[in-house]
Structures are given as C-alpha cells and as structure tokens.
Amino acid sequence: MKFTELTVKEYDNFVQNPALESHYFQVKENIATREEDGFQVVLLGLKDDDNQVIAASLFSKIPTMGSYVYYSNRGPVMDYKDLGLVDFYLRELDTYLQKQNCLYVKMDPYWIYQIYDKDVNPLPNHEKSDALVNLFKSHGYTHHGFTTEYDTSSQVRWMGVLNLDGQTPASLKKQFDSQRKRNINKAINFGVKVRFLEKDEFDLFLSLYRETEERAGFVSKTDEYFYNFIDNYGDKALLPLAYIDLDEYIINTQESINDKEARRDQMMQKENKSDKQLKKIAEIDKQIEHDKKELLHASELRLTDGSILNLAAGVYFANAYEVNYFSGGSSEKYNQYMGPYMMHWHMINYCFDHGYGRYNFYGLSGDFTENSEDYGVYRFKRGFGVQIEELIGDFYKPIKKSKYWLFNTLNNIRKKIKK
C-alpha cells in the first residue's frame, strides 16, 4: 500500500461506490464549495499494490496561526471494519502532515458507533465500534466524546434513518405511527403536490426557511451558505417544494360535496329507514358540513393569498447510497394542509423510484428525554419508525504540539472573555 495525493477523477471513482457509505460532504462537488469558502482542498488516499484506490478523504486546509488545520468533514472514506487499513492510513497521514505545516488534524468519520431502534433500544446484532475509537486514540487522537447535544463546532452525531431495502412504499407506510399515516393521508386528500425547484426559484425555499427559522429561533445559515451548495452540487442537490393549488382543490371539494349531497338525498328518499341508515345519513351530513367549512376557508385564502400556496420546502443531498435531508422550512399559516408530511412522503417515494436504500432524516441531538431541546424533532422522526444511528464522533490530533497548546490557550481565554 502507498499513501498519496489523488486526482479528482481517482477520488470520485472511489467514493461513488455505494458499499462505502460516503457522506455528501465527501463527494467531489464539495471541493468547489470549500474553495469558495476560501480554503484549499487536498485529496489524500491509499492505493494497493495494483494501484487501486482503497481509501480516500477530502481535506480542507484552514489557515490558522500561520499554519493549517486539516479537516476531513465526514471522512476519510474507507472500510473501517478493516482496522489494519485504518491503522496504516492514520500512520501515513501523520507522516504526510508533519511535512505540511499542519497545526492539527480533525476528522469525524461517517461511521456508526451503535444502532438503536426508534425507542433508543440498542439493536442486538450490532457491536459498538470501541475498537475503532481505541485505534484512533493509539495514534494520538483525542476523542471529542460521546456527545448528546448539538455543538456548533461539530457535525451531528446522531441520525434518524429509514432503511428501505426489502420494503415497498405500502409496507413502509404501515410501520408509521397513526399520526404520520393520518397526516400523510390528509395531505393526499387535500391534493397537495410536490415539485422540484429550479436553481432560479431557490428564493421560494429561503422564504419558508427564514419563516421557520424565526419561529423556532435557531441559528441562521446565510443565503450565501445555501447558494454555495446549490451552485456546486448540481443534480446531487434536490429541492422539493410542497404546494397546493386552491383552484383545483376548490373544484374537487365542490364535486365531493355534490356527490355526498346526492347520496344523502337518495338515502333520505327511502321510507322506514333503519337506525343504521339514519346514522349513515348523519355521518354524511357531518362530512358535508366539514367540507363546506374547508371550501369556505380555501375560497377566502384564494382571495387574499392567491391560488398557489407554498407549504413546505427542503434541501436534500443525494450521494451514492442515500438521500439525506439537509434543511427545511414550512408555513405555519398553512399547516392544516400538512405540507412537510407530503414533502417527506414524496422524497421517500423518490428513493424507491431511484434505487436508494436509505432515507436519512439526519440530525438528532442524542438527548431523547422530553426536556431536550429537540424532543419534538425526535418525536416527529420516531413516528416514521426510524432507526437511530449513533456516529463515532470527532477526533483531533495536534501536529505542531507547542503551537497547538498556545492555540488552545488563546481560545480558552477568548471564551472566558465572552462569558
């Protein structure tokens, strides 16, 4: 084996292998996003004796104190079950970085530490990846820990994932809880549709995202942050928009009312109606009354807000083996139409239609108690029957040890001053 810098073509051919479970931050398209952020990028890999790539990683070189932080965001990409391969990579990486004016190196591999069911019970057939953690530590890396909170300095360590292999949309839907099934069916009955936004329509997503951001009070991502990905990821960035056409909905609802009234009138004409028939008539009257209220509300909305209502939108990334939910936003005013549910249901079906084996709802804090900051997010994803995956976490290693000590000391002083 030999450690070497890779060409973009060599790198891309390797990470596109679905068996490697590479993250969307480790695709070639991320090279341009990192460069536009002002960082240099280097592709570092291993080749076997037949000159075939067997490990690779996209590293950003981040200028810091006259040196560089080498950061592999969700990398390296390799078979982490092969501890000998990992050991060789880490050893050769250290030799390389010693010659590159590197202050420290940071990695957060896209590798599972433990798997749980939706109720956070460990699955019996998966062992914790302690051997891998210990291997990193044996090479002088510090593990950031098995965190259970969001940290702005780290990627999320917990994810909610739907495994689609061996499933169909119908069989998967049966596993959703009653609220998920009910709300998806509501959206379908309302006639909610989903289409993909073009790049020049991205402001429609941003509008819904900013509304959600203000409502939830979370930390802002700039427009430039999003556009950086959208500009560079091409067809690997998917931008679904859930919307309702009120003109179409009003026509369909009026036809439904007419049909129910006709059936009700026909039943009323019968003499000597049984209790069962009377109950049926009462139920139809109730449905008609409900539909008329919905029709009036939709008609009023059409007058004030127009015929097309944008309900929810998202940014997804597709890589070689999964579709990953990145960010989303929705309109609280139109929440009765269940736009977010239709968006997720559409994208789950997109995975089936395009051969993806995983639908990744992505981030969770890891704190699953009712008092946690994202308990509502967990409850939402749990309702879809997700498998919870705990990633292995962040690893740091100082290369210039004295300078790294000074770097940490200054950082700690700054944090104390801010407090």
UniProtKB/TrEMBL annotation:
Compartments where found: Cytoplasm
GO MF: aminoacyltransferase activity
Listed transmembrane segments: none
UniProt keyword annotation of RNA-binding present: no
Location, primary (coarse class): cytoplasm
Record bears the keyword Repeat: no
GO biological process, one term: peptidoglycan biosynthetic process
GO cellular component, one term: cytoplasm
Family classification: Belongs to the FemABX family.
Name under which the protein is recorded: Aminoacyltransferase
Gene: femB
